[in-house]
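Hi, here's the filled form for the chain we discussed.

Project: internal
Contact: R.S.
Residues: 390
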Amino acid sequence: MAGKGGILAFFPAPDGAPDPDRFLSEVLDGWANMMRAKGLKAAYIATSRAVVMQLADFSGRFPWEWLPGETDEWFTHLRAVKGLAHSTVRKYQGAIEGFCEYATSPHYDWSEHSARMFGSTFSQVVTELSRVTHSQPNEARPAKRAFTLRELQQFFDLADLEYERVLGSGRSGALVVLRDAAAFKTAYGWGLRVNELRHLQLVDFSPNYRAPYFGDYGTLQVRWGKAMAGQAFKPRNVLTVFDWAAETVDDWIRNGLARYGEPVSDLYPTGTGGLVTESHLWRRMKDLLDELGFPPGLDVHSLRRSYATHLLTSYGYDLKFVQFQLGHEHAATTSVYTLPAPDFQASELARVHRETLEASGATPPHPKRQLRLPPPPALRKRPIPKRGSS
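And the returned structure, exactly as it came back:
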C-alpha cells in the first residue's frame, strides 16, 4: 500500500494482516533518511537505529505501543544491571527521544498509518520527568586523570631515553621513537586531541607577532577540531605558551621529519606516507607508563587533560583563556579537564594566608617555605641519527 507522497507504508503479512516488522523497518529507514539529510554520519545513524531496536527487544513491543513506564524500566536496567555510564544512558535517551520526535511529527504520516493498521499511534516516551540531565558539569570518568608535573617530566624523559636506547642498540625504529616522543610533547604543548594531533601539517604553524620569541611556532591552526553531530570539523587557533614546545617541533622538523624524504606536508607521518594512528600512540604510551609504574588512569587524552589542568592550577592562566585554547563552547566543558594539581590547594591556602597577613601589616612566617609554582617540563636535547640508521 502506498502512503502519502508515494512512500510505501506497509506490506501485508501472508494472512492478510499488516506486517508490523516491515512497517517498523520503513519507519526506521525514513528516520535514517532524515538524519542523512541533516548531515549526520553513518555510524551515528546506525547506532541510533540499534538503540531503538534494543528498546523494542527489551519491552517486547513495537514503538507505537511503547509507554513511558516501559522506557523508564529499560533505562533503569541499563544503569543498574548493565552498569552503563551516566553519559551513555543520556545518549541512549537522546536517540529514543529523537526517534519518537520524528515518528510523531505532523510532517510525516507514520502515526496515521499505525493508527489505521494497528490501532495505536506513536508517542513521546522520554519525558521531562525521566530524562537524564547534566546533574553536574563534570561527567568525566573518575578513573581518568591528568599527569602531575613530576609524572609528566618523567614520562617525557623516558620517551627521550627510549630513543637513545634504540639508537645505541643498533636496532631499527629510532626515527619512529623520535617521532612519537615529539608527538606526545606536541599533544601536551598545545592541548590537542589525538585526531587533531594526527592531522597536523607544517602549514598549521605560524608566527605570533605579539610573541616573537616563539619564532615560526607562535600559533597553531587546528583544522580538525572535534565536530558536533552533522557538522563540519571545528577549527580553532591555539596560542603557544611553552617555549620548549616550540623548540620540540622545530627540532623534529629540522632533524627528524627531513629524513622521511621530500615533499613532506604532514607533521607526524608514517614510513609509508600515512598518518600515525591512535592505536600506535596508545601502545607506545602504555609501554612507557608500564615501565614507569604510574598509577592507572592515564591515556593519550591525559596529555590534553593535563594541559588544561596545569594551565589553570599551576601556571595561573584564566579559565576563559584555557577554554579558548581547548576549543570549548562552554566553560562547563572545560571543567571536565581541570581537576586541581596535587599541590594546588596547599599553594592557594598559602597565598591567601600571605595576602591576609600582608594586608594586616604582619610579616608572613617562614618566607623560605612558601610554595612556588613548578616550572614547565624541560626539553631534553637528543642526538640525531645519521641518515639511514633508523
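Let me know if anything looks off before we file it.
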